[in-house]
Design a protein that fits this description.
Blueprint lengths: L16 E5 L2 E4 L4 E4 L2 H4 L8 H11 L12 H13 L4 E5 L2 H18 L7 E5 L8 H7 L2 H4 L9 E4 L4 H7 L4 E6 L2 E2 L5 E2 L2 H14 L2 E5 L14 H4 L5 E4 L10 E5 L20 H14 L4 H22 L4 E7 L2 E6 L3 H10 L2 E2 L1 E3 L3 E4 L7 H23 L1
Parallel strand pairs: 3-15, 5-6, 5-7, 7-10, 10-11
Antiparallel strand pairs: 1-2, 2-3, 4-12, 8-9, 11-12, 13-14, 14-17, 16-17
Helix pairs in contact: 2-10, 3-10, 11-13, 12-13
């Protein structure tokens, strides 16, 4: 194959697509593939959803970009919808999850600054997290594999083991500004954070005057059967990040906050050229219009339980290859006993897509509009992939 003009930063699978519809993709050589990756939890309404296509076409014929030098009515409407459906009172729009996390970190630091404590800049994070690929979000993530070769990590992050409340308390000091956590670690291997731990973090933040930040880039936008995963725990953060599914495939990120938490983010303190442009806002609004319709999220929760039940039987049938089903809603993972790359490749051989994650977990992230019959087909193909892998290893 000719040398690619692209950066060699991705180990791309030998497959490409030319079109999609619903939970199905068609490859450039004409094969029909069941998409249980959703572009890594992005395509929440699948491919070519008519509401999203219609919103994009309609807005494209009006105005694409004007910049944040002016009011953007589509942005104000989308922000009002997000605030009406969550704890938030303020929203900053950007283009990606990493940018949303950067905004959250700056929001926390500025909050302490305007409250007379400029020294409070450190953020407590957790092992196994993933917060993005910028220098600051890499430091927040703390994974040596991702930090290698980029020099000293950005200053201001203290990482502890998830679930270790005593370590969190001991880490809080006079420079601590906030605690940053994913309610479910997605890239970390679909690791659910217990509700009692999140509630304890809320209490610590209240006691010590810290902000609680939830990174819901992967767990939000209906993926768990609630609009955002924090709703399962009953814990309300001060600041929250969203992206991935927020635009249903169109690049959109957002940092949501209470009015108090956002009070330091005044004119000139932060910005984005493309963030909140009319195209992105029109598509994001269309996503939420579908997700917030009566019964939609309840059905996602039901389908998630159904998928996990079906997968449990598959796991029991292949004890040498897989041993645990985890997740919430349609954010599902299966822990593998063989390298996850082998399972992923075997799934592709069955014309099915999944996504690897930490702790040797294969993620199954179908679009939220997936039918029960398509879930059944996904389970059948996953089972067939494992069976083929077993035969290959035996032979």
């Amino acid at each position: 194959m000719d040398r690619s003009p692209l950066f060699d930063t991705f180990a791309r699978a030998p497959i490409a697509f030319e079109r999609g519809e619903g939970v199905w993709l068609t490859t450039t050589d004409g094969r029909r593939v069941l998409d249980f990756s959703s572009g890594v939890a992005v395509n929440v309404l699948g491919h070519a959803h008519p509401a999203l296509v219609g919103a994009l076409k309609a807005q494209a014929e009006k105005v694409w970009h004007v910049s944040n030098l002016y009011r953007i009515p589509e942005q104000e409407r989308f922000a009002a919808t997000l605030c009406g459906a969550t704890f938030a009172e303020k929203v900053f729009f950007c283009n990606s999850g990493a940018e949303a996390v950067e905004c959250a970190l700056k929001t926390a630091r500025r909050w302490h600054f305007v409250n007379g404590h400029p020294e409070r800049t450190r953020i407590i994070t957790f092992a196994g997290a993933f917060h993005g690929r910028t220098l600051a979000t890499l430091a927040a993530t703390g994974n040596p594999k991702y930090l290698e070769g980029y020099g000293p990590p950005a200053h201001g992050f203290d990482q502890v083991e998830i679930g270790d409340l005593k370590a969190v308390e001991e880490t809080i000091g006079p420079e601590t500004a906030a605690i940053l956590i994913e309610p479910i670690q997605g890239e970390g291997g679909i690791r659910l954070v217990p509700g009692h731990f999140l509630r304890a973090l809320r209490e610590l933040c209240d006691r010590h005057g810290l902000l609680l930040i939830f990174d819901e880039v992967q767990t939000g936008i209906g993926r768990t059967g609630k609009l955002f995963a924090y709703e399962w725990s009953g814990v309300t953060p001060d600041v929250m990040t969203a992206a991935k599914g927020l635009g249903g495939g169109f690049p959109v990120g957002a940092c949501l906050a209470t009015a108090d938490a956002a009070k330091g983010m005044t004119a000139g303190t932060h910005g984005s050229t493309f963030g909140g442009n009319p195209l992105a806002m029109a598509v994001g609004q269309a996503v939420l219009d579908v997700l917030l319709a009566d019964g939609f999220l309840d059905d996602v929760a039901r389908k998630g339980l159904y998928l996990k039940q079906r997968l449990a039987a598959v796991v029991d049938s292949h004890p040498d290859l897989v041993d645990e089903v985890r997740g919430e809603g349609l954010l599902v993972g299966v822990r593998c006993k063989v390298p996850v790359a082998e399972v992923n490749a075997a799934m592709r051989d069955q014309d099915m897509l999944g996504v690897g994650a930490g702790e040797n977990v294969i993620r199954l992230l179908p679009p939220l509009i997936v039918s029960d019959a398509e879930l059944d087909e996904g389970v059948r193909r996953f089972d067939a992939a494992l069976a083929a892998l077993e035969r290959a290893k035996a032979g």
